[in-house]
Every structure is written in C-alpha cells, then in structure tokens.
Amino acid sequence: MSRIMQRWFSSWLKRRIPAATQQTLSHHSIFILPSGFGLLWIVLTVLLFLFGTNYQNNLVIGMSLLLASVFISTILHSYRNLAGLTLLSAGSTHTYAGQQLSIPVKLYATKPLYQLQLSFPHNDELRVIEVGQQPQTRVLSFATHQRGPLDPGRMRIESRYPLGLCRVWSWLDLNTQHMVFPAHHNGRLPFSSLDGDSGETGAALKGVDEYAGLRSYIPGESLKQVAWKQWAQERGMLSKEFTTPEGEPVWLCLPSQLDNMALEHWLSVLSFQIDELAKTPNQYWGLQLGQQRIAPSNGQEHRLICLTALALFQLGTGDD
Amino acid sequence: MTESHDNITRHTLLWLLITNIAVIMPLADKSSVATLGICGICFVWRIGIYFGRVARPPRWLVTTLAIAAAATLALVSRELGMLNALINLLILGYALKYIEMRERRDILAIVLAGFFLIALAFIDKQGIGDTLLSLLVIAINTATLLSVYRGQQNLILQARHAGVLLLQSLPLALALFIVLPRLSPLWLVPQSKGATTGLSDEVSFGDITQLTRSQELAFRVTFDGQPPATATLYWRALVLTDYDGHRWRQSEPTRSINWFRPYNIDERQDPPSENQLNYSVIAERSGQHWLFGLDRAQSQTKGVKQLNDYRLVSVKPIEQKFQYQVTSAIGAPLNRVPSRVELDQDLSVPAKLNPQTIALGKQYAAQYQNPRQRLAAMMQLFNQQPYYYTLTPPALGQNQLDEFLFTTRQGFCVHYASAFTILARASGLPARMVTGYQGGIYNADAGYMSVYQYMAHAWSEVWLPDSGWVRYDPTAMIAPERIEQGFDSMFAAEDSYLADATFSGIRNSSWFNAIRLQLANLDYYWTVWVLGFNEQRQQQLLSKLLGEATPLRIALFLGSVITLVMLIIAWHTGILRLPTRRSPIDSGFTKVANAAAKMGVERSISTGPNAFSEQLKQHWPALVTDIEQWRSCYSQLKYQQKNSSQISQLKKKFIFLSKSLSKKIRKSH
C-alpha cells in the first residue's frame, strides 16, 4: 500500500516539479506543514486557552491567542525561507562503488535564507547556515552501492527557520548523472599483448630500452644495471634506470566467459589496476572488455574513459 | 532528529541564561525558598557551562537536585495549596530540564515550558506593567527559540527579530481576542492560596491603621448617572457582631459559612425602591469573599450573593479583578427582622470587662427612654468631650473601652465604632459593627470612582424596630479641630495615607498628580476592557465595530484581519512586491520593444538602445526617420542634463513618439 502511495507520489512530483538542472523554488514547488514541535506549540496554545478560560483570565487567553498568531505568521516566514532559492547542478562526479559520491550543488537566493538542510533520502544531511546572492557550491553526499551510471533522484531541501514551528520542504531533481566505477580490488590481472598472448609481467614494466637516470641500487637487482662507472668514481652503488618508451603499451583484458560474481570481481581488479597504471608516469595502457576495445593512451582523461567503460560493462539494466 | 550538542550556539546559551531569570523572576513570590534555591544552583551551573568552567552536570548532582525538588514539593505542598504546589512543580521541572539540557530538542522543551510559566504569572499579576513585563519575557523566550535557528546572527538582531515577529502577530491576536467567544469555566480549578489584602474579618484596634496607610486600590465603581455625594458613600463589606474585649469577629454562622452552598443567603427579593442606584464595581484581588455595596444592595451577577445582613459576597474568593453589577436602594431600610438568637448576639457584652462603659450605657438607658434620643446623646458624647482622632493612639490595657472612653480619649474609627456599639448594647439596643470603606475619589473624565485601602472605615448599626438597622458613625462626630493626624477620606486629609509613601514631597506638584490621574485612568480602561472583557462587552464592542454582530460579519472581519496581517508580513519579508510605477521613459521604450518583438524582432538584454534602433531600422527601413527621432529623444532624456520644464516636454514628446512608432511597427506587414 505504502509502495503504491510512494509511486503515486513520485509520479505526481515528476509532473509538478519536473527535473531540470536549474530550479528556483516558489509556491509551486514548496510544501509546508507544521513540524512536531509546531504541533506541540498548538497543544500548548490550546492548553493555555483552557487554562485562561477556567480561571476566567483574559491575559492568559490573550497570551494563548498571541502564541497562536505567532504560529500563523511563522508560516509565511518559513515559506519565505525557501522561496527564491535557486539550485543549480554543478556538474557530474564519479566515485567508486561503496564510497560516498559527492554531488556538487550551487545555491543562491535573491534574499538571504537561513539554516537549510539538503539531503538525498537515506543519506547524510548537509546544513547550509546562510544562502545569499553570492552563489556558493556545496557538496551533498550520496552513498553508492554498485557500479554504473547513477541518477541520485530527488533531493530534499528543508528548513525550519525561524522558530521550528513549520517544516518547509521541496523535492528537486537537478537532472544529473554521475558515474560509479567498480570498487577497487587489490589484485592483478596479467597484462597481455594485443594478440592476447601472455607477455610481459608487471616487473618487466621497467623497460630496458631507454636510459632514464640513476637511482640508488636496491640489493637483488641485476648487476647488469649497476652503473659501474659511477661506482668507480666512488659515488656509491647506483643503478641505471630504464623505462619502456611511449608507444609500447600494456593491455588489460577482461577474461571472457565469466559468471556474474567473477565478472564483478575482475572488473574491480581492473579498476584497481587502471588507477595503479595511471599513477605511473608515461605508462600507456589499453583496455579490452569483450568486444569493446579502448586504444592505449595515458593521462586522467584516458583513465576516466577506461573506468567508465568498466562501470558500464554488461550492466543488466544499464543504459549505454 | 539528529541534532547534536554542537548545534547549540553560544548565543543560544546566553539567551537561555537570560530567559531562565526572566521566566522565574515574576513567579518568585509563588515559589518556596527551596525551589528558588534549586533554581539558583541550576542557574549557577549553567553560568559555569557558559564560561567553560564546568562541564555537563554530573549524574549525582542532577539526581540530588531531583530528590531535593521532590522533597521540597512534598514538604511545602500542603502549606502552599494545590495551585502553588503545581506552580512549584513546574518551576522545578523547568530548572532541572535546564541544567540537563544538551540537545536542540531540550531547548525546545524549555521554551515551551517557559511559555507556560509565563502564563502562570498572569494568575495574580494583571496590571499593565506586569503585562508589558510578561510581553518582554515572551519576546526573550521567543528570541531564545529564534537563536536556535539563527545562531550566527548577533544578539541584538536576534532580539529585534523576535520582537518584529511578535509585533506582526499582535494584530491577529487582538482580533481573535475580540472575536472568539468567551466560555464559562469548563471545570473546577484549584485556586491559589495567596495572601489576603484589604479588610480582614477580624478587627482589633491595631488593624485598620495598617490599611489607612495603604494607597492601594480596593475597588472601582462606575455609576449609571451621577455619583451620590461622597459623604453618603458607606461601602458595607463586613458585619462584625462578636466582641471578646479585644477583637471583633463575624457571627459564628457567618464565620463557618460553606461558600459553595451558603445557607444564610436570602433569596428573597427586596421590594423595589424609588431611589434606585445602579452601578458596577470592579473589586481588586483580595483573596477574600466579601464584596462592597451601598445601603440595601443586590446583585444579579453570577456568583454574587446577598447575605441576610444585606451585604454582598462572592461564592469564590476574589483572586483576580472581579466585576459585578449592583442595584442599591439608597435610604431604604435594612429592616429584615433578625431572629431572636441574632438579636441576643447583638446585645451581648463581654462579661467582667469594661465596667465603666457598661455603667455609662445603663446610665444613658435610664436617662433617655426613646432609643433615638439615647443614641443621639451618645453621638454627642464624642463631639462634646475632648476626643481626638489619631492614627497612632496610645496602647490600651485589659479594659480597652474603659481606658479609651475615660482616659486616653484618642483613637480612630475602630475605637469609636467599638465604644459606640458596646455603649448601645449596654443600654439595651441591639448593635453591631460594620466595616467597609467610606468615600471614593471620582474621576469625572473617565467617569469612575476609585476607592483606596486608606478609605477603610468602621461604623455602627443599631437595630430600631420601627426602621431596621440604622447607621451611626461616631467617628464623624469628632470636632474637626481635634483631628490630630490625618484620617480617612471623609476628612479629606491628604496626608493620612502618605505616612509610608516615599515621595510625599512631589506628591503635591500638579504635574505629578496629572500623570497619576492619567495612569489611574489607563488602569481603569485596562481593567474594564481587557481584564473585564466579557461576553457583554464583547457584544458591545462587536456591534460598535461591525454594526451588527452576525456570524458572517465576524467571519468577514476575522478574514480581513488575517489577510491584512498576512499581506503586511508578506510585504515585510519580501515575498510580496508592490508594483512600482515605472518611469514613462522606460515604459515607452518597452512599448516599442514589445511591438517589435511581436513582429519577430527580439531585443536581447545586451542590446543597448542605439544598437536596438539600428536593428529596428534594418527591419523597417520605411520608418527610419521615426526611429531616429525616437532614439534621439530617448538618449536626450536618458543621458543629458536638462531643466525640469524641458524634461517634462521631452517626456511628453517621447511618449507620443513611442506610441506612434509602436503603432506603425504593428501595422507594417
């Protein structure tokens, strides 16, 4: 029953406050009801009225009426504290499954507003003490559970200013899409050549081709790499370092024929490895996921492309 | 709610300190010493928290205080009476919650309890000053609540904000106050057992002096028509019959009266009299049952009864200002025949006391057969013998009346009334002492009379079978030159009630009196229209305001007040913007721009007037001259300094040009 109600409510909301990347709150999108404290306040006024009536005390009656009218005038004050608030989506973000997604939102208002609480359902609340004409960007957290594109849905903007008697709120969908990458899993998938032969291992990444510089010798290293000339000059035992030149990428290939569990596992491993590779300077890598192939490259942009591909790969309900 | 302690700002903590004092202070007289002590401990601890000297109160402290609070209540509840015990309970709860407070919702609870305590203070503090003070406390309490939601704002702004919120709410509260029906009490409530003031039902020689020094108001009277002469105003309050040689008391049946079912209330209607006087009395709080009336007084007001000694009483003690209507038959005889037992009481004289007085009474009886002549002779005694009126008479011994009548010869109304009553009894005439007030100060501007405590008076009533109870006031017989020291208002001696006043010096200055009179008037209107605002006054006011108090009109009245208040708040908070008159220059420009837009030429906001006119020229080459004229007129108006006559001419021209240009643009296809 409650689920039906909820569905009806959300579809009603969709019609009433359609999703948009920039929205300004007005009477169209603001809801207002007495808060729990407001109800207690009403109970108090009724009590005082009875008290005044029983003692035939006009001042107590007057006071109860004053408190009642304070309640009524705070309705407008409460409404005003959301009316005119503009929310803008401040871009898409990404995170790894299981972590908090930080969704940036830009806020400003024509008149100053106080003590706003923003949150996505079942997520931590963001308190904004004051919103003025100067736009400010705040970050809302959203807990993620699985990889894939993420539509956080409607966020709740709530205020109880000025006396906490009324709860004023709105549900806004800023129409944003975020990406949740597979969670990291510390593991290793052998690098492969383009043909799929298992070739160099991780250790072989330190190439032999191009001299990159000197560093202190680590015991156990091949003596071939020791810079004997410098040793002879009594500058200590150093070893020459070489790196694989550009153009000689490693390939990350997702094993084929995986069941669901294993697929998620290897996607997580790949996610970890891609981030590791991205940390290594000048490291080029390519990614092959089933039929999809991402040409080798490096840099942040490439990393995000690869991680997004991982996030989207073979999603049951994902939209490509 | 997931609010935690860190949401309570320092401002809120400071507000809480202020609120705590503000809320509890007006109730200090109702709380026991132990209660105040516990409140004090809690307050000091909170100050410590505010300055960061102590942390949250340890469990043992809270527990100890709670136990102490419970013990206090248990101990004092009996002596305080039900209502005061309840008030103490609330204050203690308030204090304990206050010391324990850690979350936002604790503050909310404290604020709500605070409002209730403020209302409790209204039980017996109902003056204008008290009310203004309570409004201030309400504002402080509201500011505390506001600071919870607006912690960063500075303290003064928070206070102002709360004040504005209350002021915005006042008109609606007032309208509701006027319109909402007055209900009668829904159930029986405990009454406070406060101190009693004014006349006492036991009078000894020292008692009335206390009153004669008090300038407190006893009651106010509004007469229908002209008030009677002040000298004839004997406000009867108590009839005292039992005299034990030291003090006067009411008769035994009256003392043990059951106020909820007074048996000696006479429901008989007195015969109508020609000399009817209608008036309404607003009695101040006295904590007593007795009311005030002139001569043969009757009241139709609910809860007011007439006892068979013709005095008015209230079924409930007067715990707050109380208004009642009286009809007095002025000069009508109080001739309800007393029973044999009653007459016996009115003849009894304490045995073995005051032999000289009794002898004198018997002597009068022998000398004058006619009771009226006898009484007249007794009255003459006080005039002819050197009796002095003083508020500080010498102390008297065992035989009070003998010493007073024959030795000291100094006293005030109680002495004279006592002596006269006993003399009459000794001479064989049933007599009793009546206490009440004599006189009153009439305020012709506002049309009411004030009777103060210093007008308290005592006199005698003697039963004469042919004319009932007849009033004799022996004090009035004292020769004016023998009034040593001020007196009741009858003698119009201004000083009598000033003995205790601190600023007697400025009392005589006229401006001071003028202010005092204005304040008294204000207090009168306050009492009548706010405290005494009942169904009748409501009808009166509503029909004055609305012509006729039909439900529809009342609803319309309330609706329009609500709308008006809401509009004001909306405007004040900036939800509503009043349309501002646009300058003719702007509206002319917009007119052309709108006409162009209709024809498909949109002006973007960044396009200046010159660029816009170029745009127009491109689209309407036929109108180039019109457009150019229009543009130059616009830029002259906008960007050139001109004197006012030139400007108004240019404006007219521009409006005309705008009109014709927009028309031409619309007509072009």
Automatic annotation (TrEMBL), chain B:
Residues 405-476 form the Transglutaminase-like domain. SUPFAM superfamilies: Cysteine proteinases. InterPro entries: Bact_TGase-like, Papain-like_cys_pep_sf, TgpA_N, Transglutaminase-like. It comes from the Bacteria. Keywords: Membrane, Transmembrane, Transmembrane helix. The keyword Transmembrane applies. The chain crosses the membrane at residues 12-28, 34-52, 59-76, 82-99, 106-123, 129-149, 161-180, 554-573. SMART domains: TGc. The keyword Transmembrane helix applies. This is Transglutaminase-like domain-containing protein. It comes from Shewanella mangrovi. The lineage of its organism: Bacteria, Pseudomonadati, Pseudomonadota, Gammaproteobacteria, Alteromonadales.
